[in-house]
């Protein structure tokens, strides 16, 4: 595939090639380079030449900074495997993927960046953790090398460092927007007292306000608590008591999808505010903690027939469909179909199923291959932020995405619903940011 062809449909070809290359192996990369982390916080580096596109050996060097040892080792190795897959699918012979072990620490990430700079890397993929991303941000910016971090922490983004992870704000924005379009105006939240819970709640309150609604009740709880009954009872004092709201909501959705219209009675019911209560409840928890909460909610009259339960990407767990109170709950996540194609190929190549974050390694490497080829074809001296911030965006394993000027990511997410027999797509993910620009994916 030529650079021009890749440009005409940014990255879509990468997924098409998954099927074509299923029986082949990724080309090898330069092995992980051991780097010595500094014992103390690093001092400002001496001035160095600015990052360029092509190194003296004629190659475009891409630096992958991931934990090959230490905390996050399993995910780091999966990111490496996925990056190799994308390099095989989209990379030209002029690309070299150099792997640097961050050892899962900020100090290790900083040392890895110094080694990547010495190799005259044109682009950095990684690191995985937000603390590691923060540790390299200033030095990478001074050197002029863009960074595609695997972190979902938007607070580290900016000045040439981009986050690829799916942030809590991204998920909450999508599910609140969808719920608001169905007429829900009054919301509540039951959140853990933790940095994750704080981020989810702040994003939730902002999204509800932006959609013209109000958060009428918020309750926090201590993660790991063995008895959450007091918190659920507190929440229940504000819950809507009108029967059948969830059923009417589903009927309204089915009618809207068929182009039908709903009466004034249904629209009023959808608001969930007829009794001064709330029509939707955010539950950011996952796993056993979520199941514990969900079993208590109907007991204290926070009934899923009256209140629409909303979750996060950690609801993408088939085990949750066994909890009756969660059936019918909605959450925002990537469309699962492309992931199924990717994970099937990954398993055939490496003999094991990938962790969910592995898709970020594929998408990052594929973006790097496309923008570096385009930059070289245009005779540009380096990979520019303008190329990465293409408003058309890219289409990858996790759907369409594009980098914003502030370093944050915009993604097209689907709305998924927990049902008794599995997880289904309730509202499809968008296929483009600009009509007609990004091709529909084929499976």
TrEMBL record:
Residues 32-43 have a biased composition (Low complexity). The keyword Signal applies. PROSITE patterns: PROKAR_LIPOPROTEIN (PS51257). Residues 28-50 are annotated as: Disordered. It holds the Pfam family Peripla_BP_6. Keywords: Amino-acid transport, Signal, Transport. Residues 1-21 form the signal peptide. Belongs to the leucine-binding protein family. This is Amino acid/amide ABC transporter substrate-binding protein, HAAT family. It comes from Tistlia consotensis USBA 355. The lineage of its organism: Bacteria, Pseudomonadati, Pseudomonadota, Alphaproteobacteria, Rhodospirillales.
């Amino acid at each position: 595939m030529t650079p021009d062809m890749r440009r005409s449909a940014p990255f879509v070809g990468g997924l098409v090639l998954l099927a074509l290359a299923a029986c082949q192996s990724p080309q090898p990369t330069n092995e992980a380079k051991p780097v010595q982390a500094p014992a103390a916080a690093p001092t400002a580096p001496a001035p160095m030449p600015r990052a360029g596109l092509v190194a003296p050996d004629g190659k475009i060097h891409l630096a992958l900074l991931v934990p090959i040892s230490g905390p996050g080792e399993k995910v780091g190795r999966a990111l490496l495997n996925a990056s190799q897959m994308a390099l095989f699918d989209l990379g030209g012979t002029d690309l070299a993927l150099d792997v640097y072990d961050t050892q899962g620490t900020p100090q290790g990430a900083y040392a890895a960046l110094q080694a990547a700079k010495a190799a005259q890397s044109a682009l950095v993929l990684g690191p995985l953790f937000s603390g590691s991303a923060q540790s390299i941000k200033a030095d990478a910016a001074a050197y002029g090398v863009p960074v595609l971090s695997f972190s979902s922490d938007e607070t580290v983004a900016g000045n040439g460092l981009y986050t690829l992870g799916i942030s809590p704000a991204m998920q909450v924005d999508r599910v609140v927007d969808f719920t608001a379009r169905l007429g829900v105006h009054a919301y509540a939240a039951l959140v853990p007292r933790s940095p994750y819970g704080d981020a989810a709640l702040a994003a939730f309150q902002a999204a509800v306000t932006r959609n013209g609604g109000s958060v009428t009740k918020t309750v926090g709880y201590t993660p790991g608590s063995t008895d959450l009954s007091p918190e659920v009872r507190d929440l229940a004092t504000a819950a809507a008591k009108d029967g059948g709201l969830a059923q009417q909501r589903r009927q309204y959705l089915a009618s809207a999808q068929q182009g039908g219209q709903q009466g004034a009675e249904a629209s009023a019911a959808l608001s969930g505010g007829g009794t001064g209560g709330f029509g939707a409840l955010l539950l950011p928890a996952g796993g056993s903690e979520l199941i514990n909460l969900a079993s208590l909610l109907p007991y204290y009259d926070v009934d899923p027939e009256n209140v629409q339960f909303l979750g996060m990407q950690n609801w993408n767990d088939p085990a949750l469909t066994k909890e009756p109170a969660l059936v019918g709950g909605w959450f925002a996540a990537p469309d699962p179909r492309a992931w199924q194609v990717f994970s099937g190929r990954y398993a055939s190549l490496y003999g094991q199923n990938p962790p969910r974050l592995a898709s970020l390694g594929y998408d990052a490497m594929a973006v790097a291959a496309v923008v570096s080829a385009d930059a070289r074809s245009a005779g540009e001296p380096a990979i520019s932020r303008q190329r990465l911030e293409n408003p058309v965006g890219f289409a990858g394993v996790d759907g369409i995405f594009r980098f914003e000027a502030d370093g944050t990511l915009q993604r097209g997410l689907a709305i998924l619903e927990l049902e008794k027999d599995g997880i289904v797509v309730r509202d499809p993910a968008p296929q483009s940011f600009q009509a007609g620009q990004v091709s529909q994916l084929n499976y």
